[in-house]
Amino acid sequence: MCLMKVGVLGTGAMGNVHARQYRLMPDVQIGFRERHPERADTFHASGESARFDSAEQLIEWADVIDICLPTDLHMEYALKAIEAGKPLFLEKPMTTSLADAEKLIHAADKANVPFMVGQVVRFFPEYALGHRLVKNGTVGTPSAARLRRGGGLTPSGANGWFMDHSRSGGVLVDLAIHDFDWLRWTLGEVKFLYSRSLGATTGQGPDYALTTLTFESGAVAHVESTWMDPGGFRTCYEVAGSEGLIEFDSRTTPGIRTHLHSGIKLDQTVSSEDDPYYKELAGFLGAVKNGTPVPVTGHDGMVALSLSLAALESAKTGKVVHPPRI
Residues 9-34: pLDDT tens digits? Predict the structure, then answer.
């Protein structure tokens, strides 16, 4: 068994989620760098890991790098990893601007470094199955979709960085990007969109957004994204087509319900082996080991970011926005 050394930069909520999955992999050794002593102690105490005094030392030690830092720090440390020739897993959103995203993709291509973006919703079993059902024609030609994601507790992050939308992008860039990515993966490219957002006007604090996307196919989707629902976190979606409808609701449905003219079918999609973060990270490490394409590319991450930034622009200007073709 060949041991793979994974260097984790950032030990907040997502860094700990990733570390829990890596610790389930017998061929992985974790190293980390965290500048906040208390958080570093907590991370180290949660499982075996090597502790480093600087990001540069960690990058030199590691075989691959996993970046879970605040979004506005992604560019700096992602470039350090790429320049060191280390395969890179970068949490979404990949950067705060399309120009920086393009620079990262170019740098990784030039260095021939595997580069994956953490659009984890593709790996949730309910969303993976929904994608397959749409793609295999179960609902016929898709015409409309409705998605919702969010809850009442806005993430704060170190020093409250989530609440500063100039750093996090607010709910459209940090949260809605999951649904934008899934929709584009499932329904194709977006022609134009229109969005309204509370955070687009305040620039800080809790946020709520509603976005309508029109696809090149003619399909239409509505995406509701919130950090302001006191009822707790919930995700749901519907996709309607010429032959039927599929639906999922994390609060009420233990799987995907498919409505067809012949009747209703319920697919139980979740088992104890279906952790999406494990599948995501194992898929990345497998691609690195085998020299195969990563499951979610830098280009995928950049297109998802372009949709989030276009939605934010629409919310700020009150205008319909055509996302750039990437």
Answer: 999 889 999 999 999 999 999 999 98
User: 258 and 145, same structural domain?
Assistant: yes
The number of domains in the chain is 2
Sheet holding 50-51, edge to edge: 50-51, 28-33, 4-9, 64-67, 88-91, 115-118
> What DSSP designation does 259 have?
E
Residue 81 lies in a domain: yes
State both tokens at 89: 């897993």
- pLDDT tens digit sequence for 195-241: 999 888 887 778 899 999 999 999 999 999 998 888 888 999 999 99
Within a domain: residue 323?
Answer: no
Q: Is 228 helix (H, G, I), strand (E, B) or coil?
A: coil
- Residue 47's contacts (CB-CB under 8 Å, 6 or more residues apart) are 19, 20, 23, 30
Residue 36: per-residue pLDDT: 83
Collapsing DSSP to helix, strand or coil, 244 comes out as: strand
